[in-house]
Amino acid sequence: MEIPEFKSTQEDPERVIEKNRLRTALEYLAKIWDEYGWPILGFLETIRPLHAWALGKFSKLEEGEKVLEIGSGYPLYNLYADRVGERGAFISLDINKNIQARSKKLLFWFQRLFGNDTKPRLLTGDASALPFTESTFDALIASNFTGDESWMDEALRVLKPGGRLITSWFELGGIPLVTSFDKHKLQRRGFTSVKQSMGAPGIVGINWYVEAIKPIEQETTDDQRVVRIDDNTGGEI
């Protein structure tokens, strides 16, 4: 009886090793791209430092104000966080736990390039469930933020009456499509004085801003009080 020739179904060990080396190299390159390549491309494409500076000017941040930024990204807030001064507070929140480590890497260079010693407080959290009490902040900033729309309701909750919400989007081609959607969404949620403005240009588009105000709750004075008369007794209700 002829014995059939045995053929191993296992892959050549040397080939497996080469594949693992290639996979490791590709994973390393992908990590480098995510950590440095894409952010640098974004910097160049949108001229992001210019956008951050213009956003700070548009936000009209003043000394002593309490400001919340949602969606920290890279630490460009250092270009305008110092506007609140020592008496104010600037808190930057992001759901990505890696933001704090990433910010520490770049904070060193930002402080030396721009002479900014402000140290904003970085928090990890969800913008749709902000860990703050009602009427805490004078201003809230959201730049290119793609979270669930419920963050707008949270923004309305944590802003003080008369507080400002500033959103910004980098619009490809310069047409403010997403910005216009933001404007209408904020109006539906009860924000007032909602304004849309063109901001800093980029290479392939333009940054657009929306400013909205949380309504100031007016107390009714005696002169403004509505008097209702009871039909049966004729007295005031």
Give a structural overview.
By secondary structure, the chain is an alpha/beta fold. It has 2 domains: 15-46; 47-213, 3-Layer(aba) Sandwich (Rossmann fold), CATH 3.40.50. Helices cover 35% and strands 23% of the residues. It is built from 5 helices and 7 strands. It has helices at 13-46, 48-59, 99-114, 150-158, 177-188; strands at residues 66-70, 89-94, 121-124, 137-143, 159-172, 192-201, 205-213. It has a 7-stranded mixed sheet with strand order 3-2-1-4-5-7-6, with helices on both faces. Strand 4, helix 4 and strand 5 (159-172) form a beta-alpha-beta unit. Helix 1 (13-46) packs across helix 2 (48-59). The longest helix is centred in the N-terminal third of the chain and has 34 residues, at 13-46. The model is unreliable at 218-237 (pLDDT under 50).
What is the average of the pLDDT values? 75
Radius of gyration: 26 Å
Count of DSSP-assigned helices: 5
| SSE topology string | HHEEHEEHEHEE
Shape: elongated
Q: What is the CATH-assigned architecture of the largest domain?
A: 3-Layer(aba) Sandwich
CATH-assigned fold name of the largest domain: Rossmann fold
Poorly predicted runs of 5 or more residues: 218-237
**Approximately how much beta-strand content do the residues carry?**
15-25%
Give the number of DSSP strands.
7
> Please, how many domains?
2
CATH class of the largest domain: Alpha Beta
Main beta sheet: strand number and arrangement? 7 strands, mixed
Which assembly state applies to the chains in this document? single chain
Name the CATH superfamily classification of the largest domain.
Answer: Vaccinia Virus protein VP39
